[in-house]
Amino acid sequence: MKALITGAGSGIGADIARVLVDEGYEVILVSKGKVKLEKVAKELGEKATAIPMDISSTYNCMDLYNQVKKENIDILINCAGFGLFGEFTDTNIDKELDMIDLNIKALHTLTKLFLKDFVRKDQGYILNVASCAGFMPGPLMATYYATKNYVVSLTKAISFELKKNGSNVSISALCPGPVDTNFNKIAKVEFSLKGLNSMDVAKYAVQKMFDEKLIIIPGFKMKSLINLSKFVPTSMLLNIVYNGQRSKSK
Questions:
Q1: Rounded to an integer, what distance in angstroms lies between the CA atom of residue 226 and that of residue 242?
Q2: Residue 87 is part of which domain span?
Q3: pLDDT tens, residue by residue, 95-107
Q4: pLDDT digit string (tens) for 58-81?
Q5: Pairing state of beta strands 170-174 and 26-31?
């Protein structure tokens, strides 16, 4: 079997690639950072192929699909994404639109293109990397939280459609809390909670993906917090998130 992994130059994406190669899969790695990406591909050896590409462009997403559509891809891991911290009136609109292009449009485009192929052959797995941010509004990271809400909602809806149609294709959303990756450096935040180990998250994600788990939340503490948030009034939840975000500002 063969997997396509975006955001594979570092963090969870690179670790998911390592897990899949250890389990005997071939992987196609995609990221705009050519040096880091080729370093990961070299580490993984002959089972890995690197495609340096900025998929925040819808045109590039189409180009990527056309490059690999004959490779008989069985697994799609949509891991590329980034965050941005700050008041909505202060954050840079160009960065926010880039975030929407990558976190939403690229994931949406690749999911649709590969899902059609998977449905046609009635097999395949899609793992969309979202976040625990996908279950709530996020003052001080409003756009990022909104993008992850989109990913969670889209994944749930597609999963329901697949089940209604009796399809053997599975789609899942990985929704971690803080993870020790390069994310917080890019977003300019410091997590108040200790981040989970990226490799542990990757192993858990792959296992649950193959178990066809729809929503994958690593860590008992984060599962408990998400379940609790369902019963908290919106005004209280907004205050909790706001104070939590403010406390981790650099």
A1: 16
A2: 2-247
A3: 999 999 999 999 9
A4: 999 999 999 999 999 999 999 999
A5: unpaired
Report the number of distinct structural domains present in the chain.
1
* b/e map 154-163, b = 16+ CB within 10 Å: bbeebbeebe
Q: Could you tell me what percentage of the chain is helix, strand and coil, using 3-state DSSP and rounding each to the nearest 5?
A: 55, 15, 30
| Structure-token match 């399809």, residue found | 167
CATH number at residue 25: 3.40.50.720
Place of tokens 């756009």: 143
| Distance in angstroms (rounded) separating the CA atoms of residues 152 and 144 | 13
User: Token pair of 80, please?
Assistant: 């590329």
Q: Say if CB 133 and CB 145 are below 8 A apart.
A: yes
Residues taking part in catalysis: 144
Give the CA dihedral 110, 114, 119, 124, nearest 10 degrees: -110
In the three-class reduction of DSSP (H, G, I as helix; E, B as strand; rest coil), residue 29 is classed as strand
